[in-house]
């Protein structure tokens, strides 16, 4: 056999060639996503026309013609040319946001004591960031500090005592209350939702009935009703002379409501686990809690990460409902300042609502992006 007749065996893998020039780059993306069909072309043209019409008006109102500084409402009725418009309408009144910014963040918290919520916010960020980074070490210690130690320190700093001036919770408000309510609601709802979901799937009839009753009753009423019950009816069950702080009532109401929804999210994840996973865990001789903690629950939570984050986002936004029981979160404190005669103008309300909406969107968008990051990080290659 000659050398030319011998079979050839490749010893290295061919280097992958790049896609054709027409299938990559911005032009290919536009052709594939915006101009693929005649319907896509028409919709793209209409969308571009709408953007071309709306964006200049929005930019003009939000930035160019906006009022950025001023001591009172008279500046918010003045255009950049210096003339008063007939209807008193001008650009956005960012001077109102600037003047009330501290109140939007801290509510009516005393000026001399606002260093305390600032410290709590810094501690929260320092503990939350490593908790969200998958590669950060000492997750157990981090979780204990974030969910057990920080709430105690935060309560001591925010409320006072032990040498600090006492600041009653009716003076709390703004973004601070929004973050407190949402953090406690999220931190409490996840473990409670897991326990409720496990209880609903329990083989013990009493536990299953109690969990089903709790979930269905709470999910069957709006959050406003739960907050009213926590604010009005809860004190009726306490001994004479006892009183529960209004903020604590709101925390209980939000946590209970969110836990019921979280339980159904977790239950959906548990039902999506193949039966073979349960049988495999049983074959290893694992007990119920070992099987749940080590095998079942990690898979269930990974499957429902989008739904969990969706519930967290809903909780963050629903905190604005505490206004009906006399508390002022970010949206509530913004709306409360609309009644300030010094800033009463045609553009003040919409500017305040845009500011509050942007803050809510910023936090919700951050949670959504982190959810996508965790899905990619935990992806094992299975298509669902």
TrEMBL record:
- Identify the CDD domains for this entry: TM_PBP2
SUPFAM superfamilies xref list: MetI-like
GO molecular function per UniProt = transmembrane transporter activity
Alphabetical GO CC annotations of the entry are: ATP-binding cassette (ABC) transporter complex
Key words of the record: Cell membrane, Membrane, Transmembrane, Transmembrane helix, Transport
Q: What is its main location?
A: membrane
InterPro entries, sorted = AA_ABC_transptr_permease_3TM (IPR010065), ArtM/GltK/GlnP/TcyL/YhdX-like (IPR043429), MetI-like (IPR000515), MetI-like_sf (IPR035906)
Where does the protein end up? Answer: Cell inner membrane; Cell membrane
Q: Ranges for the ABC transmembrane type-1 domain? A: 175-364
What biological-process GO terms show up in the record? Answer: amino acid transport
PROSITE patterns cross-referenced by the UniProt entry:
ABC_TM1 (PS50928)
Q: Name one Pfam family in it.
A: BPD_transp_1
- What topology does it adopt in the membrane? Multi-pass membrane protein
Is Cytoplasm found in the keyword set? no
Q: Which residues cross the membrane?
A: 41-64, 115-133, 140-159, 171-198, 210-235, 247-266, 344-366
Family as reported in the entry's similarity comment: Belongs to the binding-protein-dependent transport system permease family. HisMQ subfamily.
Known PANTHER family for this protein? INNER MEMBRANE AMINO-ACID ABC TRANSPORTER PERMEASE PROTEIN YHDY, MEMBRANE COMPONENT OF AMINO ACID ABC TRANSPORTER
Name used for this protein in its record: ABC transporter permease subunit
The organism that produces this protein has a lineage beginning with: Bacteria, Pseudomonadati, Pseudomonadota, Alphaproteobacteria, Hyphomicrobiales
């Amino acid at each position: 056999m000659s050398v030319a007749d011998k079979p050839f065996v490749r010893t290295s893998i061919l280097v992958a060639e790049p896609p054709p020039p027409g299938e990559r780059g911005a032009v290919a993306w536009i052709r594939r996503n915006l101009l693929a069909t005649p319907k896509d072309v028409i919709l793209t043209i209409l969308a571009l026309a709408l953007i071309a019409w709306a964006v200049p008006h929005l930019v003009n109102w939000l930035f160019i013609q906006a009022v950025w500084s001023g001591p009172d409402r008279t500046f918010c009725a003045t255009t950049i040319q210096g003339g008063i418009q007939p209807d008193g309408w001008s650009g956005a009144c960012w001077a109102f946001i600037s003047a009330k910014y501290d109140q939007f963040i801290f509510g009516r918290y005393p000026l001399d004591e606002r260093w305390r919520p600032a410290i709590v916010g810094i501690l929260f960020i320092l503990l939350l960031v490593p908790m969200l980074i998958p590669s950060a070490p000492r997750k157990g210690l981090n979780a204990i500090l974030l969910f057990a130690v920080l709430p105690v320190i935060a309560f001591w700093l925010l409320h006072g005592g032990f040498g600090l001036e006492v600041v009653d919770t009716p003076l709390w408000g703004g973004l601070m209350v929004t973050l407190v309510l949402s953090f406690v609601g999220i931190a409490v709802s996840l473990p409670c939702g897991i326990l409720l979901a496990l209880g609903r799937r329990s083989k013990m009839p009493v536990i299953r009935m109690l969990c089903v009753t709790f979930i269905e009753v709470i999910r069957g009423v709006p959050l406003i009703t739960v907050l009213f019950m926590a604010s009005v009816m809860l004190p009726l069950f306490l001994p004479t002379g006892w009183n529960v702080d209004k903020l604590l009532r709101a925390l209980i109401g939000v946590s209970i409501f969110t836990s019921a929804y979280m339980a159904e999210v977790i239950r959906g994840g548990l039902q999506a686990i193949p039966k073979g996973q349960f049988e495999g865990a049983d074959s290893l001789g694992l007990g119920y809690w070992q099987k749940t903690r080590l095998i079942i629950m990690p898979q269930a939570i990974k499957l429902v990460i989008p739904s969990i984050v969706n519930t967290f986002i809903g909780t963050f936004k629903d905190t604005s409902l505490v206004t009906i029981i006399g508390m002022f979160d970010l949206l509530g404190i913004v709306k409360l300042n609309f009644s300030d005669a010094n800033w009463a103008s045609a553009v003040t309300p919409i500017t305040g609502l845009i500011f509050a909406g942007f803050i809510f969107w910023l936090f919700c968008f951050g949670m959504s992006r982190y959810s996508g990051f965790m899905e990619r990080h935990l992806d094992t290659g299975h298509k669902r």
